[in-house]
Write a structure and sequence with these properties.
By secondary structure, this protein is of the alpha/beta class. It has two domains: 180 residues, Rossmann fold, CATH 3.40.50; 135 residues, Phosphofructokinase domain (Rossmann fold, 3-Layer(aba) Sandwich), CATH 3.40.50.460. The protein contains twelve helices and 13 strands. The strands form three sheets. Strands 3-2-1-4-5-12-13 form a seven-stranded mixed beta sheet, sandwiched between helices. Strands 7-8-6-11 form a four-stranded parallel beta sheet, with helices on both faces. Strands 9-10 form a two-stranded antiparallel ribbon. The model has no long low-confidence stretch (mean pLDDT 96). The structure holds 6-O-phosphono-beta-D-fructofuranose (F6P). The site of 6-O-phosphono-beta-D-fructofuranose has 11 residues, from loops. It catalyses: beta-D-fructose 6-phosphate + diphosphate = beta-D-fructose 1,6-bisphosphate + phosphate + H(+).
Amino acid sequence: MRIGVLTGGGDCPGLNAVIRAVVRKGVGTYGHEFVGFRDGWKGPLEGITRPLGIPEVRGILPRGGTILGSSRTNPFKIEGGVERIKQNLADMGVDALVAIGGEDTLGVATKLTELGVNVVGVPKTIDNDLGATDFTFGFDTAVNIAMEAIDRLHTTAESHHRTVVVEVMGRHAGWIALHAGLAGGANVILLPEQKFDLDKVVEHVETRFQTNYSPIIVISEGAMPTDGDMITLNGELDAFGHVRLGGIGNWLADQLEKRTGKEARAVVLGHTQRGGTPTAFDRVLATRFGLHAIDAVHEGDFGKMVALRSTEIVRVPLADATRELKTVPPHRYAEAEAFFG
Ligand code: F6P
């Protein structure tokens, strides 16, 4: 079989580990041939490829990013996009695709499957918000990066008797904030799932100063105050209709400085959370996803996505990938509240 591989959406530590596993087992065990499509759905849409064999995947396991490049191209938003993809795949003799991506990339994969394209999906997102899988790779790395940053911010905050607000990624799901905040000993954690009461946050900050410690607040980029909305960088939408979030950390630091009379600083971790080498957990999960994805392709089990259920990798319908956004349940947030203030 000749198999195309692509990575779409925001990059994520572990993408290269998936690509390597797919190719190593695909060539070594099954004798398939591969073609790398560049920059997500833009690759098959415009017929942009790169060679993808064993030599190309050597040494990429620990590397962040993706050797294939990524984009947020949506072929369903482009006139004749789907037909062009089908034609390009036919012209190149590509029998099947492995699409590695999040909600948007897998959403396109689901629709293409319904239109007769052979696709197997691999879930990816540092936000860990895909309902069909217990964990996505990249999440553990992002949490560790944020935790290390929080550890460092504790000492500088103490030295200057300041509040530090740490803004982490998480559009609709606060998993990164919850886990990094718990692991880093944050005094308040604020998530998109639950609007926050600014007066309560001020109270926690003041209690913390009274006990001679400096408060660290971890906040998801998508968190909102009770009477406010998500803060966006500009009004522009990407091809999947997402706005660019950012700014809630600075807004909160400003409010806290005014209300407590103590200096406050905001640190926006941004894309640092997505860059660089994956943790061991993410390398192993990504590798297992890759191995199981190529098994599915080899068996002709298309329209499926690999997923982690407990400790096992299973196959679920691709449509399940986008069916349910996995948000932080109230009882998980309640656990963290024991440490607030
Ligand atoms: O989807 C993952 C994510 O990290 C979100 O948390 C964040 O809002 C988004 O990507 C930002 O990505 P970019 O700047 O690449 O558009």
